[in-house]
Structures are given as structure tokens and as C-alpha cells.
Design a protein that fits this description.
The chain has about 325 residues and is of the alpha/beta class. Helix content is about 40%, strand content about 15%. It has 9 helices and 16 strands.
Length: about 325
């Protein structure tokens, strides 16, 4: 019985080895040329402790002071980030074919350049926390926001990834934001530029594309898409402005879609729920879907009753 099973397994292995020899992308052996996703995610989680030194314990080492804790964490982050960055730099045309010493030197430069942005990242996140607290009456204190709000975690991950993206690091920023995406349902490309006081309420289903620009004091609710009009151009669209620009003090309610690289949403605009926008909106406008109706059918078979929704009373209310 066991001998027959062994033969079947051996036959399947032989079949797969022949399939692996076909020279396709999925057949390439890049086990030692690809970043370790678990290590990258671990870097992100350790950076969370660095960003919020008094909120998350260091479960890896026993330390007695904040300084000692941060020093040990930074040594770990530097070692692993340098190593993972050296791996991914080979994907860039600039370092294709470069020797190991050149790549290692650039990986070290990039790592320390990134670490120097941490005070900037922390200053932005401080404003994000304030925006969450000011914008959500369900938040009883800022500790609750830091420890539990998925929107803040998505923003934290993006602010880390965005700085690495600006430094020209491939793959690693996307691994970080996709990890946040998998945990929160919020998909923000690391290329997105986001200002201060950014507030994501609820958040599930939000999609924000690579070339989106978001100003200060912007609120976005669940199910919002800041996307491209069309991606049929494929790789020909690489590097082009495909996603909208959102100016300061804009609120975008749930289910709204704002599409296109030429689409600009002016300051102090309010976008109502489920709006579909592909053209620019001037400063100060309120946008809502026209003539929505509620329909009631009664079990007795009576005539259907309809009531028109007043967007001034419903579209812009906080859920």
C-alpha cells in the first residue's frame, strides 16, 4: 500500500519538475532573490513600537528604559532593513548587475536616510490621532484610537511605506501597505501623498491609488475609491498622474468614487455618499446624488409609497 502511494507521489513530482522546466515567470527560482515578507512585516511592527514607544511592549527583549528599548529595536531594524533593501535594489535598473559591495552601501544609505524621517512621520501621525479624536464622537480617548482603530493603523503603515517609496525602495513599501490592507480592508498605495490631520472613519473597502494627492484635514469614510478612470493603457500609464487630487478640508462620505488624474476636488468640498465623480469640483461645493427615493411596499398589497430623500438632511450626516 505504502509502496503504491510512494510511486504515485514520485510520478506527480516528476510531472511537476517537467512543468517547472518550461521557462515561464512562475517557473523562476528566486527564493534567495526575493524579500522575506515575514521579516518586512516584523520591521513594520517594530517600527510601531518606535513610533509609539509607550504603547506597545517589546516582546523580543527585556529592557528597563525607553532609551535602551529603542536602541535594541533600532539595531534589529537596521540589520534587517539593510538586508531586505539590498535584495530588492537588484530589481531597479540603476543597480542591475552591480556588485554586492555597491548594493550594500546603497542599502545602508537608504536605511539611515529612512530612519532620519521618523520624527517627521511621528509629527504627522500625532495630527492624524487628533483628527480621529476630533472627528469621531465614539472615540472616548486617544489611547483607544492608537490601540484599536484600523484606519489609524492603515495610515501609520502608509506613512512608513511612503518614505521608503520616496527613497526609491521597491517591493518593501508595497509589502507593508498590503499587510495593512489584509488586516484592515483599507488599500492605500505607498505612492499616495497624504497631508496632515487625515481621518479614515470605519475604513473597510477604501481604495486610494498611487498618484493620489490628499491635502490637510481630509475625512474619508468606508467604501470610498480614489482611483483611475481606466487602466486599459496598462504599462503605458506608468508614471503618469492617474488618480485625483483632493485639496484641504474635504469630506468624502461612504461609497463615493472619485476618478481620474485630471480630477481636482477643491478646498472645503463635501462629497455625498455613493457619488460618482470624474470631473473637478470647485471650492466650497456640496455634491450629492440627485433625486434618490425610498420605496415602501406593504404586505397588504396597498399602493407603493415613495419618499424623496433630502440630501441636505441625509447625505451629509455622520453615521
Amino acid at each position: 500500500m505504502a509502496n503504491g502511494m510512494d510511486k504515485k507521489i514520485d510520478g506527480i513530482v516528476n510531472m511537476l519538475m517537467e512543468d517547472y522546466a518550461r521557462g515561464r515567470v512562475i517557473d523562476e527560482d528566486k527564493m534567495f532573490e526575493y524579500p522575506d515578507k515575514d521579516v518586512v512585516i516584523d520591521i513594520l511592527e517594530k517600527l510601531k513600537v518606535v513610533i509609539y514607544p509607550g504603547y506597545y511592549p517589546n516582546n523580543h527583549y527585556h529592557t528597563y528604559t525607553v532609551r535602551n528599548n529603542i536602541s535594541i529595536l533600532l539595531e534589529d531594524i537596521i540589520y534587517n532593513l539593510k538586508k531586505q533593501t539590498a535584495i530588492v535594489l537588484r530589481y531597479t535598473p540603476r543597480f542591475e548587475g552591480s556588485d554586492a559591495q555597491t548594493i550594500a552601501g546603497e542599502a545602508e544609505r537608504v536605511t539611515f536616510a529612512f530612519l532620519e524621517t521618523i520624527p517627521k512621520i511621528r509629527s504627522y501621525i500625532e495630527t492624524d490621532i487628533q483628527a480621529f479624536y476630533d472627528g469621531d464622537p465614539a472615540a472616548y480617548n486617544k489611547d483607544e484610537i492608537i490601540c484599536t482603530y484600523p484606519g489609524l493603523y492603515a495610515i501609520f503603515s502608509n506613512r512608513i511605506a511612503h518614505e521608503l517609496f520616496l527613497l526609491g525602495v521597491p517591493l518593501i513599501p508595497r509589502i507593508m501597505t498590503e499587510h495593512a490592507h489584509s488586516l484592515t480592508g483599507i488599500d492605500i498605495h505607498p505612492g499616495t501623498t497624504i497631508g496632515r490631520y487625515f481621518f479614515i472613519d470605519h475604513g473597510t473597502g477604501i481604495v486610494i491609488g498611487e498618484t493620489t494627492e490628499i491635502g490637510n484635514n481630509v475625512k474619508i469614510y468606508q467604501g470610498v475609491t480614489l482611483g483611475a478612470l481606466s487602466t486599459r493603457g496598462g504599462q503605458n500609464l506608468r508614471g503618469k498622474k492617474r488618480h485625483p487630487t483632493i485639496h484641504d478640508n474635504v469630506t468624502i462620505y461612504s461609497g463615493a468614487s472619485i476618478l481620474g488624474g485630471d480630477t481636482v476636488i477643491g478646498k472645503n468640498v463635501v462629497i455625498g455618499g455613493n457619488a460618482f465623480i470624474t470631473a473637478s469640483i470647485p471650492e466650497g461645493a456640496k455634491v450629492s446624488v440627485k433625486s434618490q427615493e425610498l420605496m415602501f411596499r406593504y404586505a397588504s398589497g396597498e399602493t407603493v409609497e415613495t419618499r424623496e430623500i433630502d440630501p441636505e438632511k441625509t447625505c451629509f450626516e455622520k453615521i
